[in-house]
Specification:
32% helix; 17 helices; INPP5A; alpha+beta; globular; single chain
Length: 555
Amino acid sequence: MRSLLEGITSTLRLAQQQEVQQQAGGNFRDTSTKCLPSAPQPLASVGVSRESRDGESAVASMDLLSGGLFNYSRFSMDSPPDFPFKMLMVTQNIGGINPIADEVEGSGGEGADCACDGLSSGVQRKVMEFLSELRLLIFEYSLCEYTAYFKARCASDESLLQSSVGAVVDHGPPPLIDVIVVHLQEIGGKKHHREFIDYLSNVLLKFLPEAGWTSGLLMETNGDKDLYTAVGSVVFVSHRMCPISSILSFHHRTYVCVTDDPVTYGSSPAILFHGKKFSGAGDSRKGFLLISLRLGTVVVNFLNVHLYNDTINKNASVSSPSPFEPRRQEALLEALAECVVFVSPDDPLFIFGDFNTRLDICNMLQYLKEVKHMDVALSSNDIRSPDSFWELFEDPQYISVIKPYDVEIQRLIDVVAEQSGIELAEFVIRFPPTYLCQLKANAELPQPMGSPMSFSEDNEIVEDLSGNVDNERISATLERITSVPRRPYMRHRIPAWCDRVLWNPAALELMTGRRTSCAAGADENNGNSSCVLRRYAYRSAAFNHTDHDGVTLLF
C-alpha cells in the first residue's frame, strides 16, 4: 500500500523548493548538497486572522510568555525542504486551574485583584505559566528532532561530525513541528466560567505566533448544562503545511483551506468541530469533540474525549471489572458512532483525552493483602493505607507491581472492536500514572527521573524581558517537563493511567509510513535520506498547576 506520508512529504518538498527558487531570483540552490539548514526567517505573528500578523500581536505574545521562557523557546518559520513531516498531539486535563476556587482562596489577597477580562490576576498567571511550559515542551521536541535531522544530514561530512550538537542552535532556532493538536479537558475547573474561557481563547491565539495558522480554541461555549462539556481542542499548522492543509467544516461537509480563514468561513468557529455531551452524562460535563484535518490528500481525525470517572472508591473495588467500566465503554462507543457519520473509519483516527481508565482495584488490593501483607481500606472519598502503598506508585522500581492491573484500557479496546468494528491500539506506556497528582511548585517537587529522550542541552544564559537572568527557573522547568514525572499523588484516589492516546490501523500506517516516503526520496537527496528520524515519543509531562500529568505523542 502506498505510504500515506509519501504524498505529504513530496508535496512539501516541491513547494519549498519552488519557494526557495523564487526567493533566490531564479538562482536555485540544490539544498540536497548542503548539510546545514538555511538561516531562519524573522518571527511574525500569525493566527486566525490576518490582522494578527502585526507587531502588536507579537509583542503581546512575548509579554504573555515572559520571564525568559519565551526568549528561550523561539522557533523558525523556515525549514529545510527535506525536513521530515512531524506531528505532535498533547492531551491535558486542566481542571487544576480552577478560577472559582482560586478567586475564593485569593479573597483579600493577590488572587482577588481582578485584572482585565474579569478574571483574577492569580488565575491569569497560572494560565500563562501553564502555557509557557507547554510552549517550552514543544520547543524541546522541535529542537530534539532538528538536532537528529542535522546529525543525519551531516553524517557523511567528517568535519561537520566534529561539531557539537549546539551547532544547530548557531544556525537559528528549530522549525516548528508541522501539525500540533492540543486536547484540553475540564476547562474552567468544575463549573462553566465564561471569563476563563474567553481569556484562555485569547491567549491561545498568541501562544505560537510562529505558526502559519491556528484554529483558536474550539469548544462549546454555551453554558447550558445539557450542552456544555468543558472539552476543547486547538490546532497549530506550520507555514510550510498551510498551502496543503484544510479543516473540515461540519456544517458545510467540506474541507476549507486554512489559508482561506476557515474560522470566518461560516461566521463561527463552531462549524469546525462536532462535539456533544454524552447522553447519560446528567449533571456531569463528560463528552467528546471531533475535528478533522486534510493534509495534502490525507485526512486525519482527532477525537477529544472525557469519559466518566469513578464516583466512589469503595464501589470501584467490589468487583473485577469495576462497575464503573461499562459506562466508560458506552460513552466511547457513543462518541465513535457520532464520528462515523462525518468521517471514514478507514482514515487515520487519533483518540486522546481523559479516558478515566482505572486500575483493577479489586484484584490489586487482594494481591497486596495476600502476597504483600498490606491492608488498604477504602471509603467513599478516602484511602487508609501505609506509606508503602503509595511508594508502589511514586517509586519507579515498583512499577512492575501495579502495571499488570492496568487492564481496563484493553477491555475498552476489545469492546469497541467487537461492537463497532473499529480497531484501536496504544503504544507501550513507560511513564507513571497520570492521575491524581498533587499540585506542587518547583521547589516542592522531588527530583525527576531521567529523560526518555535525548534533549539537547544549551548552557546559554537566558534573560527575561526585564533583563533579569532567569536561568535557574528555565533549568528547573526544563528538568521537570522533559523528565519522567515524579510527582506525589493525592491520598484520596488510587492513581491510574487516565490520560492516553489511542489510534487505529490507518493512524499506525501514517506514523510508520515514512519508510516508503524516505525510500522514495533518497535519490532526490543524493542518498542522504532522513529515514533515521523514523521514530515516535509517547510520554507524559508534569505541567505546573495541573493535577493530571499531560500525555504527548510525537511522530
